[in-house]
Design a protein that fits this description.
By secondary structure, the protein is mostly loops. The protein is built from no helices and 9 strands.
Length: 371
C-alpha cells in the first residue's frame, strides 16, 4: 500500500489522532495546518521550509516559534538579524563577555579586539566601563599594543611609508558663535581631591620614544601652529602653553614647582653626542616678521619673584654666558690695542631698559692676560 487517502480534493477532511493524556496530532486540510500537542518531533534528516514569507515582527515569517531556539552548532543568517526586545543581550561563553543593548547604546562587558577599521559615526565612549587600578594594568579603555608587548609595525624596503594609528582631522565651519566658545581636539582631566595618597604619581600623559637603531629624526612631541591666511586673533597665538595654577591659600610641598621643565639625563657610562647638545634650544627662524625678542621673561605687575633669571650652576660650567655666532659683530668690541683693560678685550653688550632714551651697555672685559 503506497498511500492512505481520506476524502477527496473537494472535501475539507481533518485527520485527528488522540493518544492517552493530552496527546494529539491534528491535520486540518482546510486550514492547511499541522498541530501537535504534547508530542515531541524528532528527525535525523534536514527539515526544509520552502515558504518565503518575510518577517517583520515576532509573529510573522516562514517559521514562527513561541519559545526559544537551541542549536549545538553554527547559525547562518542570509540577511538581517532583528532583536526586537529592549535590553537584548548577546552572551559569549556563559557570560565571559556580553554585549547588552539599552536605548541607543551597546554596552560591552569585556575587551573587543578588532583586526580591521572601526567606523563610529556616533562616537566611542567608555564612560560606563569600570576602570580599577591593579599591578598589571588589567582594565583598559583603549589600547594599541600594550605596555608589556609592542605591536610590531613592519616597514619594507620600498618607497615612502607612513603610519598614523590615531588620526583626527577637524575643520571648523558654519556660523560664528555669539559668545566665547572652545574647540578642543583632545580634552583630558584627572582629578585627585578625595583621599590623600602619598605614594601615587599623577600624569595626564606619559609619552616615551625608545631609540636603539639608526633613524633620521626623533621627537616625543612636534607641534605646529600655522597661519595660512589673513586672520585677526583678539587673544593670543601660542604653539605650546604650560600653566601651573596655585589656588589662594593652598600649601604645596615639593622639590620644585614649575610650569615647564626640560632635562637631559642618563646613567652608566658617558654617552657621546657628535652634534650640538642643549637642554633647551630656542630658534628664531622667521623671515617674514621681526620678533620683539627671542626669549621674553615677563613678571606681571601683581606677581613677586626673587630673581628674573637664576643660574644655579652646580657641577662643571665653563661659561655663564656664551655669545656664539655673528651676534657680537654688531656690538661695540675692541681688541688689546684699544682696550681699556691691560692686555685684554672687552665687549659692550647693549641692553634696552624701558624709560631710557638710549640703550645701556653691560661691559664684559677680560681683566687680565698673562704676559
Amino acid at each position: 500500500m503506497s498511500a492512505v487517502k481520506v476524502g477527496n480534493t473537494a472535501q475539507d477532511v481533518d485527520f485527528q489522532y488522540y493518544g492517552t493524556g493530552s496527546l494529539s496530532a491534528i491535520i486540518d486540510c482546510g486550514a492547511k495546518t499541522l498541530t501537535l500537542v504534547g508530542i515531541t518531533s524528532t528527525t535525523n534528516k534536514p527539515l526544509t521550509i520552502t515558504d518565503a514569507t518575510a518577517t517583520s515582527s515576532t509573529t510573522t515569517g516562514a517559521l514562527i516559534v513561541t519559545g526559544g531556539i537551541a542549536t549545538a552548532a553554527d547559525i547562518t543568517c542570509g540577511d538581517d538579524l532583528f532583536m526586537a526586545s529592549s535590553g537584548a543581550v548577546i552572551n559569549f561563553n556563559s557570560g565571559n563577555l556580553t554585549l547588552t543593548h539599552s536605548s541607543g547604546t551597546i554596552t560591552n562587558s569585556g575587551i573587543l579586539v578588532n583586526t580591521g577599521a572601526i567606523t563610529a559615526n556616533g562616537g566611542i565612549s567608555s564612560s560606563g566601563q569600570t576602570l580599577t587600578p591593579d599591578a598589571n594594568r588589567t582594565y583598559i579603555a583603549y589600547q594599541v599594543g600594550s605596555r608589556a608587548t609592542e605591536k610590531n609595525i613592519t616597514m619594507t624596503a620600498a618607497a615612502s611609508q607612513n603610519l598614523d594609528p590615531i588620526q583626527m582631522n577637524l575643520n571648523i565651519v558654519g556660523a560664528a558663535p555669539t559668545s566665547t566658545s572652545t574647540v578642543n581636539g583632545i580634552y583630558q582631566q584627572i582629578t585627585h581631591d578625595t583621599t590623600a595618597m602619598a605614594n601615587i604619581r599623577i600624569k595626564a600623559a606619559d609619552w616615551t620614544v625608545s631609540i636603539g637603531k639608526n633613524a633620521t629624526d626623533a621627537y616625543v612631541y612636534q607641534g605646529e601652529l600655522q597661519h595660512t591666511a589673513t586672520a585677526t586673533l583678539t587673544g593670543e597665538s601660542i604653539c605650546m602653553s604650560a600653566l601651573t595654577y596655585l589656588s589662594a591659600g593652598v600649601t604645596v610641598t615639593a622639590d620644585r614647582v614649575c610650569a615647564l621643565q626640560a632635562m637631559i639625563s642618563g646613567d652608566g657610562a658617558a654617552a657621546t653626542v657628535t652634534g650640538d647638545c642643549f637642554v633647551a634650544y630656542i630658534v628664531n627662524a622667521g623671515t617674514v616678521v621681526t620678533t620683539d625678542s627671542i626669549c621674553c621673561i615677563h613678571n606681571q605687575s601683581a606677581a613677586t619673584a626673587i630673581s628674573g633669571l637664576e643660574l644655579d650652576l652646580d657641577g662643571t660650567v665653563t661659561y655663564a654666558f656664551d655669545f656664539d655666532g655673528t651676534v657680537p659683530d654688531a656690538w661695540t668690541t675692541a681688541t688689546a690695542g684699544t682696550s681699556i683693560t691691560p692686555k685684554g678685550e672687552y665687549v659692550l653688550i647693549p641692553v634696552d631698559v624701558a624709560g631710557t632714551t638710549n640703550p645701556l651697555f653691560i661691559l664684559a672685559a677680560q681683566t687680565h692676560t698673562a704676559a
